[in-house]
């Protein structure tokens, strides 16, 4: 047998012995795989200023503990010394070196869902989908050097893994793009906000090109709870968010089924913020019920609960300190420009059940109830666990309280990024 023919036979046997992921496309046809496909690893980041913030480190340890029996966990740090600090903090929480791999590179951040790397695959190779970056379109008063450095993370990952990048002038973040095998969902107002000078058709074409999808479903607008303004979201309600990320409210759970967050009737009447969100989430539901897949078939759209934000938010009276605060040398008194000392304000966490992570053998989902909180939270925690257990009967459902990052504007999905499993072809010499 000639060497070329022998090589082809051996390569064919190796590929046949390794089942291709179901999302594998034709050669060079790269796509961002749906989350329920098999993963090689789940990536997380580490902030260099973390020393021993119990809530933060406890959350990372709990997530790594749940993930590591099922999938490799890669933790990005900016230096060996930071890796040592992180390793020590995690070890104190019973996370051993066999449970996490440290990746040292020049840039790191906790919000890897958004800044990358956004791995695309043809089933055999990986590339990075590299969108442009504008710090979530935040008002300039909030932006610091770390926000700008996030633009480098996907490039550093690509360089470290020797991966090609598929680049675009379109500004987008991973948490703003939800996918099935063929379809992408995003919020129109968020995409226009990030790309004000670009025609909508051009934005759509670029999103589909970078993610390798066939159809895009536009939802008109994102809930106000996820928006960030200079000043309140509405009334006296403040808080962080991602400025229009669909993974807080709408998620594919398979190619035919979409979970969409809805407020209970009694929740929508509690305050002005929830009243606005209720109207928008009902619009989202109606638009998804009217949407079709690439074959023209309707989706199975399943309403799922939102946690009781009113029970979770922090209410306080403004003090003199609130009017003299600064962020990285920037005076942010403008946030409270229409308020006085003694006025009551409410700080709202980015609490959501739909910011869950699906990976090999396990699903991580939020749970919020604890002693002293309304029993309704226990009920919605359980309802979401049940819905995911029905959807993923072969995966363990692990409930974790993510409030440490909810207060910062995101959740467990926001601080993770999956690396797809690809076929491995042996490079051993032929006999």
Task: Sum this structure up briefly.
Helix content is 29%, strand content 22%. The protein has 431 residues and is an alpha/beta fold.
Structure description:
The structure is a single chain. The chain is an alpha/beta fold. It has helices at 3-17, 54-67, 80-91, 112-115, 145-149, 153-161, 188-194, 200-211, 265-268, 272-290, 309-312, 375-391, 403-406; strands spanning 39-45, 72-77, 101-104, 118-121, 126-132, 165-171, 178-179, 183-187, 215-219, 237-238, 250-254, 257-262, 300-305, 314-317, 326-327, 330-331, 344-347, 357-359, 362-366, 396-400, 417-420. It has a four-stranded mixed sheet with strand order 3-2-1-21. A three-stranded mixed sheet has the order 4-5-6, sandwiched between helices. Strands 7-8-9 form a three-stranded mixed sheet, with helices on both faces. The longest helix has 19 residues, at 272-290. Mean pLDDT is 90; it is low at 1-27.
Rg estimate, integer Å: 22 Å
| Class computed from helices, strands and strand pairing | alpha/beta
Largest sheet: 4 strands, mixed
Number of DSSP strand runs = 21
Poorly predicted runs: 1-27
Number of helices: 13
How are the strands ordered across the major sheet?
3-2-1-21
Helix content: 25-40%
Q: Based on CA inertia axes, which overall geometry fits? A: globular
